[in-house]
Amino acid sequence: MLQQVLDNRYELQELIGGGGMADVYLARDNLLDRPVAVKILHQQFQSDTEFIDKFHREAQAAARLSHPNIVNIYDVGVEGTTHYIVMEYVSGKTLKERIRTEGHLPTAEALQVAENIASALAHAHSTGLVHCDIKPHNILMMKDGTAKVADFGIARAVTESTMTYSGNVVGSVHYFSPEQAKGTMITPKSDVYSLGVVLYEMLTGQLPFNGETPVSIAMQHLQQEPRSVRELDPSIPPVVEAIVFRAMSKDPELRPSSSELVTDIRQAEQMLAGGTMMSSHDPYATQVLPRVEEMPAHQVQAAGAPVRRLPSQEEEESRSLFKSKKFVFGLVLVLVMGFCVGAFMSFGKFWSTAEVTVPDVTGKPLALARQILEDGKLRVNVAEVYDTDVPIGQVVSQEPEGGAKVKEQRTVTIKVSRGGEALEMPDIKGLNRVDAEKKLKKMGLAIGTVYEKYSDEEVDTVIGQETRAGTKISKGTAVDITISKGKQTRKVSVPKVQGGALDAAESALASRKLHVSIEYKASSQAPGTVISQSPSAGTEVEEGSAVTLVIAEERKDETDIKHDSGQNKRENQSGTPGSSQEVPKPGEAGKSR
Questions:
Q1: Catalytic residue numbers?
Q2: Which of 412, 413, 445, 552 is the most exposed place for a label (fewest CB within 10 A)?
Q3: Residues in Cβ contact with 2 at an 8 Å cutoff, skipping those fewer than 6 apart
């Protein structure tokens, strides 16, 4: 467990967030008496000297940033092996939480938030700092609607370290740029692409690319165009769609810089505020709208670009005969070219005699494996497979295998793990542990760590499961469960009550949650006195146990004693019951005396 006060100054109060690299705590700066957010690096990164050095360099560079749309960094420190960053505490929601709540933002508000983010990025980029992980989760929303970008300082250090020793893809897969997906050079334009994705989500409430695995989503960033935002919501103005499209260009050279994006957004805001709808003849259109030939067909009309005149019916008929004659020849030509291209893709430059050795990339992340093969003058084909033993996104196998001699530009097929086959987690709460284990085993799952907890349920009943019922889970995954230990009991010491009064004894035992069982016995002690107790004083018993008390009986008065004595004497003299001697009736004993 982390110590509660760092450097005798920052008092950790509660965990308020976390991610793959660090956890964030709400803390109190005891020196300046103000709330702060403290980001503490995860343990696995605290033993890598190179990473720690880069982390501190970049964090200190981020601490020099001063911008109203950037969460301020106050301090960077280390205590023992704990490396941390102290940041401004922002109490509002994240942009992601707002999108989930509202579905999507009105166009004007989405542009305002995007302008805040772009302005923050422009300031950071001017200092040479790249964020690398722009996503709604890292955008904090103030109560007045202003957006603040968080997580500056850790992103660039993480990028360099992870690409150095593990090759992991950096950034959140739904938001990262094609160059991040490919594992190539990350530049400030990478942040612009991510902001384009964020703006897309703010406007539509949807992500541009989705898939079952991170690998499939990354491939879409590389190869596919997103649906038009106006196709999803026709009320979005063409000028806004053009801004999204330009920011999300596959080619970084076609994207605006962050400062140019600020200008684009502000001009669009002015146009919308003035009720102006941009046409293809506006001067601004030539700056913001991509050229028609650069845009997908479904976006040409949506973005306000001119539409060419369609041929007349007569012109179409005059061309139809010519087209039909060319059809057969064209089909044959396409088939031949397709064969040639296929041969080239499969066997490389078959006219070339140059050979290369295929690198072994099994076990490596997709981005790194692709880079290694392409650097080795080979082409890459990616296929996805289920594999419970290989982490998601890593190469399971390759064809040809590592070490094989092939011609340059030969295509190497790498099979990338999708993890275990996706299953739906069953509800096993309420089952006996043995039955739960059988149910999971039948589905291809297993019992992981078993925790025990006191409860009102019977012993060994499953009362908790780590993965919620209905959640998607990979086949072969081990599920942690919590089982009942039964009702919790406590041991208490029996107090000494022997020799005391019954009332006092009952009160003492009740205070220790013990029950009382009473037996009466004739005794020379005062009536109501505890003659004995069982268990004896000092014995350890469970709460709720019974303690038996033997209580002195109340003695009979003298008249009753004499009456009993006289009656017994007469019975003895008469010999047997039923003799002729008269026995006094009750109440007449005094008279007979």
A1: 133
A2: 413
A3: 12, 40, 82
Q: Quote the distance between the C-alpha of residue 478 and its chain's center.
A: 18
End-to-end CA, the chain: 90
Which tens digit of pLDDT belongs to each residue from 184-194? 778 899 999 99
Structure tokens at 229: 């935002």
User: How far out from the chain centre does Cα 144 lie?
Assistant: 28
Of the candidates 363, 398, 405, 393, the one whose C-alpha atom is nearest the C-alpha of residue 381 is: 398
The predicted-structure confidence for 441-492, as pLDDT tens digits, reads as follows 888 888 888 888 888 899 999 999 988 888 878 777 888 899 998 887 788 9
**Greatest Cα pair distance in the chain:** 152
Alpha-carbon gap, residue 554 to 522, rounded angstroms: 8
Beta strand residue intervals within 10-107, DSSP E: 10-18, 22-29, 34-41, 73-79, 82-88
Peptide bond into 35 cis (omega under 30): no
Phi-psi region of 377 (alpha: psi -120 to 50; beta: other; left: phi over 0): left
- Our CA angle for 124, 127, 239, nearest 5°, is 45
Q: Which residues of 523-533 are buried (b: 16+ CB within 10 A; e: fewer)?
A: eeeeeebbbeb
Q: How many angstroms separate the CA atoms of 5 and 27, rounded?
A: 9
| Structural domains of the chain, ranges and CATH numbers in brackets | 5-88 (3.30.200.20), 95-300 (1.10.510.10), 355-417 (3.30.10.20), 422-484 (3.30.10.20), 491-552 (3.30.10.20), 561-592 (no CATH)
Residue pLDDT, tens place only, 191-222: 999 999 999 999 999 999 988 777 788 888 88
In the prediction, which pLDDT does 153 show? 56
Mean pLDDT of 436-445: 89
Residue 304: CA count within 13 A, CB half-sphere: 22
Q: Tens digit of pLDDT for each residue in 554-587? A: 765 544 544 554 454 444 444 444 444 444 444 4
Q: Is 259 helix (H, G, I), strand (E, B) or coil?
A: helix
Is the dihedral angle over the CA atoms 322, 328, 334, 336 positive or is it negative? Answer: negative
- What local confidence, expressed as pLDDT, does residue 65 receive? 85
Contact (CB, 8 A) for 300 and 307:
yes
pTM for the full predicted model:
0.50
Sign of CA dihedral 51, 53, 56, 62: negative
